[in-house]
Amino acid sequence: MTRAPIQSRVLVVDDEPDLRTLYELTLLREGYIVDTAGDLQQAKVLLAEHAFDVLITDMRLPDGLGLSLITELQAARRTERCVVITAYGSAENAVEALKGGAFDYLTKPVELKQFRRVIASAVSSPTTAPFGSSQPSAKSARASSGALGQRALDKLVGESVCMRHIKERILKVATSMAPVLVTGESGTGKELVAYAIHANSHRAKGPWVAVNCSAIPEALLEAEFFGAKKGAYTGAQVDREGFFQAASGGTLFLDEIGDLPLAMQSKLLRAIQERRVRPLGSTQEDAVDVRIVSATHKNLAEDVQLGEFRQDLFYRLNVIDMVIAPLRERAEDLPVLCEALLSKIAEESGMAKPVMEADMLRHLANLPLAGNVRELENLLHRAVALGDGEVLQFDMPDTLPAIPLQLTPVHPVHASAVPEDLRLYLDELERDILNRVLQLSGFDRAEAAARLGLTLRQMRYRLARLNMDTLEQDDADDLPPATSARVPL
Questions:
Q1: For residue range 413-470, what is the model confidence (pLDDT) as tens digits?
Q2: Bond from prior residue into 109 cis (ω within 30 degrees of 0)
Q3: Domains in the chain, please, with CATH?
Q4: Under 8 Å between Cβ of 256 and 297
Q5: Distance (Å, rounded) from C-alpha 90 to C-alpha 391?
Q6: Are strands 180-183 and 64-65 parallel, antiparallel or unpaired?
Q7: pLDDT, tens digit, for every residue of 13-46?
Q8: What is the model's pTM?
Q9: For residue 255, which phi and psi values (nearest 5 degrees)?
């Protein structure tokens, strides 16, 4: 049993004497100094007399809401980490508590193992200014984050107003267990921001598990996320842990969360709310201890309105939102970004860092760079490869026009003619379109999907349905060339 430091002091506020005693005895056995209160008034008296490391409060008390204690502590700029206990299934209360500045929450009936783990996390969490405060305590947070956290922050290159705001916000939210939703265009560095949150948190020594939700076949989602027991499906030779179990004690990063199908969204919601998962083929649920950070390039609020994303899951993930500005909105960061990227490319290539001339920088500044930092890095890689080692060589037009999708007609049916087999005719039409778009995209399925307005998962489904999932670039010679005519649909 891990003993808490003698100076760690905890205040327990609950109106049920039996539960209050249970919590007190559990914490005393762990080595904490414990004070208890049965209502808000008693808690306020104790808070006025002592400073605590952790405040544990029930959401509903005889003389008010426990959440009001958190609000008053934040207004007074006190540093107690607050853990709120909510009734079973009270997802709205949990989200409200986390948004209000609570470190974490527990759901009744409280499991003592989870109770001890949450309190230990709260005690070990670095003390910073409250999340809702207007002035950050960046120095104290940075000092407590260690070298790992500082390196993660250093990878977020730029000193523009929006980048400074992102770094300050990272240091604030890192000390909480509240879920974070990172949004921004492709190539803006959403995963770097998510990792910086993990690296600056009390979970930095725990596992970091990053998952690309759009890259997992729908049939395997449940097993990948929650694990599977031996024999749960064909080929399951041994028990297998899922992402939630692998991330226990650390952070689970769900990239492209907007691509999850609705059926999986409901299962993910329950896992996040209850902090329990049931492996495929098991009758028992496993408790999990993970912090959720997710990211998407989509507008999930719009997807909720369209019925493509669950509203309850959106509110659960979006407790804290972080919006990453596109590169065009922080043009002042372009010079330092180029220097950092060139240093990285030179180090990877084992060569001296090339010099970025002022006219080259102006040339880059005039490009749309719709792919943001990722596109900038690709351009610099190309310039280094084409250069002579010391001088960069940019081989590109001044503007990069969008390439229109142009296809040739496929055996058009006369207005008076009706195909004998409509399904077969439509499948052939779809197969021909997919063939030609893949040719135009260099057999890059992600690019082909984007051209057709599909997700990568939808593209894979159509290719598999039409027995085209093994189509490779070598098959291009067998296909007729794409022309400039459009298919009449």
A1: 554 467 777 788 888 888 889 888 888 877 878 778 878 877 777 788 888 888 887 6
A2: yes
A3: 9-124 (3.40.50.2300), 143-323 (3.40.50.300), 327-386 (1.10.8), 403-489 (1.10.10.60)
A4: yes
A5: 61
A6: unpaired
A7: 999 999 999 999 999 999 999 999 999 999 999 9
A8: 0.72
A9: -85, 150
